[in-house]
Structure formats: structure tokens, C-alpha cells
Design goal:
435 residues, mainly beta, Pectate Lyase C-like, twelve-stranded parallel beta sheet, 3 helices, 12% helix
Length: 435
């Protein structure tokens, strides 16, 4: 099977998988209403049995933290007006030099499988007051400073969790498998670990999506105004159909300080617009960028070996059927030469390519030269049709004459001339004999 066909099968599977199917309500399950039956969400969660639905009416509900360790459905009446505000406490984690270090407890922790959360605005108010146990960790200092950072996320470690249709301002940490994170507004950092998780159709405006683990799908998200749009490590992820604008880095693949690399990942159908860097690859092997649009970025693509890992092999990334339009620099020329910019006799569309297409097959006759060591040997004459997965053939090229018809026409004309000439000669001879 060709790489293109394989990628299309991946996208068909991805599209089919991105459907939110609610879990059936088990026979005998109950609906608990907050605040009618229980004053707080925490009380309702503790009272609920496996498979129950907790319906929360409009209002603002304050919780220190919340832990879900049983299969439940938690549904808010409306996203805008059903608000959970968490107040997670600090706990001591160690010292940095002589400074006590603290982090916040997770705001909402989901340990159970098959949990559904929908219809809420989830936020956290973080204290800056000194922790109650600070005096126990002062190392003899009087009135010591302390540092507080991290935590206060929505953390899901179970499997088959569905978090849909929420506004989440706390950050989101996904550590289980087969989870669905869809149709949310996310203003904090999103980390997707585990395997076979699906993050799609979200609006992300705060921080980046970090994709780790194995075979996760990041699809059809709108990401804008963040430092890193989508960062990828781990393997076999599919990053498809995302719209990424006004970021420092649109999509990136890299090594980590622990030596983890991003390899065997597919990036398809993403639109990267007006970013400082569209795509950056500083590590990993066999990453494929296919059918993406890079429009009006400062730098379209950078493929390089990170300065931290000069002893490691150069990144192996392949780019084809991408549309490079209007970037100040289509490919970063100041970095080490790496990356392949065509595959299987077909390359990318470059809006500054000036070559010809004499045989009208949609592929330029001469390579698009990137630098001394890199070139696209099969540049496309028109933007790749991502929707229909096809090369566009120019329609305004001059028609090529039918040389068989032309030859026959010339032969016929010569025959007519010969006949006319013979008749004229015969006429002149006849006239001279008559005289």
C-alpha cells in the first residue's frame, strides 16, 4: 500500500472516530440534582452509586478539590451559568536551594473509567498566602519566602472518559486511554498522555497542546495566540485538520531532556497561518507532513538538530503535497540541512516557484531549490487540492497541436498544389500547340 493510501485510510478512521456517543444509562441508575437533592457537587459525588447521573443546575459552586472514583455522569445545566470554582490547597514538594517549593493539589481528579463531564465552566482560584506548614520547611530561616507552582488541573487517569462541551480554565492533564476531549473551550495547558485518546473540535486560546504517549489523535482544533500550538513527542500520533494561527511555534516535534523522541507521526490537513514558525522539527524519525497549508508565516518550516542533542542523528521528516504560500522564508536556511521535500515523484506547492510545466502534468520541469543540499524535485504548479487529495492540472495552458492531423493537412495541401501545377503546365502546352 502506498504511503498516500495509508494516510488516507488513517484519516477515514480518524473522521469516523470523532463522533461523540453518549454512554447508555444503566438500568437502576438514578439522577441526583444539585442543589435540590444535595447542596454541593462534592456531596452528590460521595452519595452517588456507580452509573448515576448528577445534574447540576445553574449557579456558582465552590469546591476545594473534587475526586471522582466511580463511574458517573456529571452534567451542568448550561456552560456559561453552571460554574465550578476550585480552591486547591498547596502541598510541600521539596527545596530549591533553601527555598521551600510547593505545588497545588489537582482541582478535579478522575480516577474511574467511563466518566462523563459536560456543561460546566471550570476554574480555580489559587491562594498566595503562606501554607500552614511552611514553618516545618524553613531550614532555620525566619519568615522565609516560598515558591508555589504547578497543579490545579483537571486530571483524568481513567479510561473511556468523555469531557465534552465545557469551558476549562484550569489546564487539562489526560493520562488514561481511549478518552474523548471534544467541543470544549480550553484556556490552560493541555497535556495528552496515555494512548488512543481523541482531542478534537476544541477552541484553545491559553497554552499549548503537548502530545505524548502512543497513537493519540489531535483533530480539528482551533488554536490561536499561544506560544506553542501543538508539541509532539511519542509515537504514532495523528495530527489532522487543526487551524493554528498567531503562535510562536505552530507545530513542533522534538527530543526531550529524557531522550524521548517524536517518531512515526502523521501531520495531515493542518492550516498554519501567520505564525512566527509554522512547523519546527528538531528530533524524531519518520515523521510525515502531508497536505498541510502554510500561509503567511515568518518561517514556514525548520528542520534541524537541537543544540542540546548534536550527537544524535538528524531528524528524519518528509514533506509532500503541502502548500507553501507567502511566508517570508519558506524553509529556514540558517539551520542544518535536513528533511525531504518530495515523495513518490510528487512534491509541494511553492508560490515563489518560477519553473515551467511543458507536459502539463501539474509538476514543474525543474526542481525547487531550497539550498545546496535540499530541493523539491517535483514541485507542484498549483496548490494541492487537500479536500480531494489530488494534484491540480493547470487549465489555462496552450493546447498542444495534433501532429497526425497537421501532417495529413500538409500532405493534402501539397497534393492540391501539385495537381494545380500540373493543370497549369498542361494548359500552357495546349495553348502553345493551338497557336
Amino acid at each position: 500500500m502506498s504511503k498516500t493510501a495509508a494516510l488516507m485510510l488513517v484519516l477515514v478512521f480518524l473522521t469516523a472516530s470523532c463522533v461523540i456517543v453518549p454512554l447508555p444509562v444503566k438500568a437502576g441508575s438514578k439522577t441526583l440534582v444539585v442543589p435540590d437533592d444535595y447542596a454541593t457537587i462534592g456531596e452528590a459525588v460521595r452519595a452517588a452509586a456507580e452509573g448515576d447521573l448528577i445534574f447540576v443546575k445553574n449557579g456558582t459552586y465552590n469546591e476545594q478539590t473534587l475526586t471522582i472514583n466511580k463511574t458517573l455522569s456529571l452534567k451542568g445545566e448550561s456552560i456559561e451559568d453552571t460554574v465550578i470554582t476550585f480552591h486547591p490547597p498547596l502541598y510541600f514538594v521539596g527545596w530549591q536551594g533553601v527555598t521551600p517549593m510547593y505545588t497545588y493539589n489537582e482541582a478535579l481528579t478522575i480516577y474511574a473509567n467511563d466518566v462523563e463531564i459536560s456543561g460546566f465552566t471550570i476554574s480555580a482560584e489559587l491562594t498566595t498566602e503562606a501554607p500552614a506548614d511552611l514553618s516545618e520547611h524553613t531550614l532555620g530561616q525566619c519568615d522565609p519566602p516560598f515558591s508555589a507552582t504547578g497543579g490545579a488541573h483537571v486530571l483524568s487517569t481513567g479510561n473511556n472518559t468523555k469531557i465534552t462541551g465545557n469551558t476549562i480554565q484550569t489546564g487539562l492533564l489526560i493520562e488514561g486511554s481511549n478518552q474523548t476531549i471534544a467541543e470544549n473551550t480550553l484556556t490552560g495547558h493541555v497535556t495528552c498522555k496515555g494512548s488512543s485518546n481523541k482531542v478534537f473540535s476544541n477552541l484553545i486560546t491559553g497554552l499549548s497542546i503537548l502530545v505524548e504517549g502512543f497513537a493519540n489523535e489531535i483533530h480539528a482544533n482551533n488554536i490561536s495566540g499561544v506560544y506553542n500550538g501543538i508539541q509532539v513527542i511519542g509515537e504514532a500520533h495523528v495530527i489532522a485538520g487543526n487551524n493554528i494561527t498567531n503562535c510562536k511555534y505552530g507545530m513542533s516535534v522534538y527530543y526531550t531532556t529524557l531522550g524521548v523522541v517524536g517518531s512515526n507521526n502523521v501531520f495531515y490537513g493542518n492550516r498554519l497561518t501567520q505564525n512566527v514558525n509554522g512547523i519546527v522539527v528538531t528530533g524524531g524519525n519518520n515523521n510525515t507532513f502531508f497536505g498541510n497549508e502554510l500561509i503567511d508565516n515568518t518561517v514556514g518550516v525548520t528542520v534541524e538538530t537541537s543544540m542540546r542533542y548534536q550527537d544524535l542523528p538528524k531528524p528524519n521528516a518528509t514533506f509532500y503535497h503541502n502548500n507553501f504560500v507567502g511566508s517570508v522564508q519558506q524553509v529556514n536556511l540558517s539551520t542544518s540541512s535536513a528533511g525531504f521535500f518530495d515523495y513518490g515523484g510528487e512534491g509541494n506547492y511553492w508560490n515563489d516557484y518560477t519553473g515551467l510545466d511543458s507536459n502539463v502534468d501539474g509538476i514543474g520541469d525543474t526542481p525547487y531549490v531550497i539550498d545546496d543540499n535540499r530541493r523539491d524535485n517535483y514541485p507542484l504548479m498549483l496548490p494541492f487540492d487537500i479536500e480531494n487529495n489530488s494534484i491540480v492540472i493547470p487549465s489555462n495552458t496552450p493546447s498542444v497541436p495534433n501532429f497526425n492531423l497537421l501532417a495529413a493537412s500538409i500532405a493534402a495541401l501539397v497534393g492540391v498544389i501539385v495537381v494545380v501545377t500540373c493543370l497549369l503546365v498542361y494548359y500552357k502546352k495546349r495553348k502553345s500547340l493551338d497557336n
